[in-house]
Amino acid sequence: MMNTTNLPNAQAVVVHDDMEQLATAVAQRVAELAARAIAARGTFHVALAGGETPRRCYEKLRHLPVDWAHVQIYFGDERCLPIGDAQRNDHMVYKALLEHVAIPPANIHAIPSELGASAAAARYAALLQQVVPLDLALLGMGEDGHTASLFPDNPALDDPALAVAVFNAPKPPAERVSLSLTALNAARLKIFLVAGAGKREALEQILRGEPLPAARIASAEWHLDRAAWPGMFYINGHGNFAAPE
Fold first, then answer.
1. Is residue 231 in a domain?
2. What is the CATH number of the domain that holds 47?
3. Residue numbers of the chain with a pLDDT score lower than 70
4. Who has the most CB within 10 Å: 4, 32, 164, 212?
């Protein structure tokens, strides 16, 4: 594991040897943040991400000491599929984490995406209005630089509501619900989990200053594995990221 120079707009960047080390480190970080928030405010409000790298983190987290009775779970995004569909993010989180820990069902706030994107987004925005800022938003990043279900050039990126309807997503299903940039940026802490060589090109674009959706999350803590980190980049004499000639 090494601390490295920040990505633009990042609070910190940590490069881990592999996905396993990344998942373990972030799980421990989440457990520590939960304890800190519960001690300070009585509750830990966290939005969870979908994806393979977060799933590995949740499998680690279920074995750590967390006061789950004082944790409130939200979701960064959801696909508009029936309740219980295996492709829903909440289904993955239940299987990887929630069914293994002593969390009251009332503390789990699924996005009602089975209602359709517009109705579900309106309902979830009303719920979030009562709890923002979240203590933590866990985030992944796609190979195109999307985060949650905020895709490049999609109108949902500029919707100021706390939860937004997403249509015409470039990967199925095309209809989704996502926390907005407004809600995500308001969180007290944002943590990205990014692993695999497939993510390197998007990270290179962010290093060059391209405004991909993930790059629009302010002051985030980025946890990467070595496969994802574009190590050919360095800081040039002007303090900017550059590729060697």
1. no
2. 3.40.50.1360
3. 1-6, 231-245
4. 164
Q: Give domain status of residue 44, yes or no.
A: yes
For the record, the structure tokens of 182 come out as 């407004």
C-beta of residue 153 within 8 angstroms of C-beta of residue 100: no
Structure confidence by residue, pLDDT tens digits, 1-25: 555 556 788 999 999 999 999 999 9
Q: State the pTM of this model.
A: 0.91
Q: What amino acid occupies position 214?
A: A
Residue 207 covered by a domain: no
Beta bridge pairs of residue 242:
234
How many domains in the chain?
1
